Amino acid sequence: MNFEAILGHHLLDHAYFPLFSRGGFTLSVSKHSVTMWVVAAGLAAVLSAAARGRSGAGLLLRTAVEEVVLFIRDKIVAPVFGHAADAFLPYFLTLFFFILGCNLWGLLPGSSAVTGNVSVTASLALCTFALINLSGIREYGVVKHLKHFVPGGLPSIWWLSPILVPLIFLIEIVGMGAKCVALCIRLFANIISGHIVSLAFLCMIFIFSQFGAAVGLGVAPAAVGLALFVMALDLLVALIQAYIFTLLTALFVGMAVHPH
Prior knowledge:
This protein is mainly alpha-helical and 260 residues long. The protein has one domain. It has helices at 3-11, 31-52, 56-81, 85-105, 118-140, 142-147, 161-208, 213-257, and strands at residues 15-22, 25-30. Strands 1-2 form a two-stranded antiparallel sheet. α3 (56-81) crosses α8 and α5 (118-140) runs parallel beside α8. The model has no long low-confidence stretch (mean pLDDT 86).
């Protein structure tokens, strides 16, 4: 049994057909891109149904979604952005529900864990990087936004300032990039690790069956039980990681909007 092949089939992206190719770059319709389209369409359908729910299951769905929306607004966005919370709320709601939807979709049998793809999490982190700078520029303008990268109170010694100011500016830029890289790696690592562990437990059945069918059958209950336990934890991880990514993005953007 080839564990590497099974892992690659479940976690890695696979191109279906190319859209266009130029030079060394090829843009293809892939398994993960289709999965993200399906998740986005499913979220649009579910959230639209929740908005129209008036009775029965629709009302229950609406109440559940409203509680999540109010939590994100009152506990994440409003404390960071204050009176500007309503302007930022749609983005953070979209971010939270999209990551949560992708995380949960990856737990379905035969599905694809798109948030276990570092390219996807890097794209989400790049959106955060862009929002940080665009929000700061929108609030203060380009020049003043860039000035905020150099904190006040630096020594005003004539020969030290030309060295210290560019150095601090560079450190702050690198720090901002490091925050976004941390967002990318945190989501990617937490999602992919759960899938790897679950598959490893299931593969133990086939590994031990090499010593005999009876040995494989004896290991099967424990292996399946451990895999189910890890998948149950992954349900919690899916929610927690969507919350953490949204919270940290709000904090990073808030630091650009309110640098002091």
